[in-house]
């Protein structure tokens, strides 16, 4: 537990410091986190991190995330071209590698590139637009995680998804949402003004972040259970991998974008 706390404090402080600085320092950090998360996802499926096909995907992830620093107009066409290029590269991998890489593995890597890169691309974009907004999203996600853990330990009796994550409870999930709403109210009172519009709008957005954050956590738990691994990696002592720490954010940001709440 001590190692977990020390790692959490140091890693959290470093992340928040670069989040506060913003610009290229934070974009580089987001790119590094995205690439490592992608590599962790690849290794779950027994794909070697330094194999050519995995490295192609890692390069694509890096290009997409760091591309958030440039104007959308100049980067727009690159998305479609990159999408098409990756599709051709991955589906032809079976030929180049003499069937060492199957179509299933190629499809897995192709999906992994966009599953990981798009959320971190959005993370860099919203940091460029508003520090207050990106801090809010991050704090609500952390509040949800903490609320689920402590409320679940104290009051948890009914399993939420026993075949995916046996330790999670319905009571913890409900407590997580309530804690998130409380923190959102406090956050708005601190920053002042009409942050995120009306109070009902604030509560509604908070509910979306908390619920989709938990869904992202469960999704990654399902992936890990399918591939028979406990943690996505070991880069953070006591915490596992980076994918374990950012699984909620990976789900939340695309959903907020789809709903038109961030852009």
From TrEMBL:
Know the name of this protein? Phosphatidate cytidylyltransferase
Pfam (any one): CTP_transf_1
The text of the family note is: Belongs to the CDS family.
What's a single GO CC term here?
plasma membrane
Identify the stretch annotated as signal peptide in this record.
Answer: none
What's any GO biological process attached to this entry? CDP-diacylglycerol biosynthetic process
Keyword set includes Lipid biosynthesis: yes
Q: Name one GO molecular function term.
A: phosphatidate cytidylyltransferase activity
EC number per UniProt: 2.7.7.41
Q: Which organism is it from?
A: Sporolactobacillus nakayamae
Supply the enzyme class, top level: transferase
């Amino acid at each position: 537990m001590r190692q977990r706390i020390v790692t959490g404090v140091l890693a959290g402080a470093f992340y928040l410091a670069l989040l506060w600085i913003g610009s290229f320092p934070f974009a580089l950090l987001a790119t590094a986190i995205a690439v490592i998360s992608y590599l962790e996802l690849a290794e779950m499926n027994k794909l070697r991190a330094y194999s050519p096909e995995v490295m192609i995907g890692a390069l694509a992830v890096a290009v997409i995330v760091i591309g958030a620093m440039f104007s959308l107009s100049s980067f727009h066409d690159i998305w479609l071209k990159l999408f098409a290029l990756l599709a051709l590269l991955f589906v032809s991998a079976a030929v180049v590698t003499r069937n060492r890489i199957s179509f299933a593995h190629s499809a897995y890597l192709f999906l992994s590139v966009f599953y990981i890169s798009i959320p971190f691309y959005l993370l860099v974009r919203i940091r460029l637009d508003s520090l207050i907004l990106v801090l809010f999203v991050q704090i609500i996600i952390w509040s949800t995680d903490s609320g689920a853990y402590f409320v679940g330990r104290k009051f948890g009796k009914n399993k939420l998804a026993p075949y995916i994550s046996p330790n999670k409870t319905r009571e913890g999930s409900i407590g997580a949402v309530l804690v998130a709403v409380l923190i959102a109210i406090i956050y708005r009172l601190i920053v002042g003004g009409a942050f995120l519009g009306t109070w009902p709008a604030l509560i509604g957005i908070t509910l979306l972040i908390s619920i989709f954050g938990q869904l992202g956590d469960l999704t990654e738990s399902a992936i890990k259970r399918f591939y028979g691994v406990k943690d996505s990696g070991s880069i953070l002592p006591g915490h596992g991998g980076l994918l374990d720490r950012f699984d909620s954010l990976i789900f939340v940001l695309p959903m907020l974008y789809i709903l038109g709440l961030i852009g």
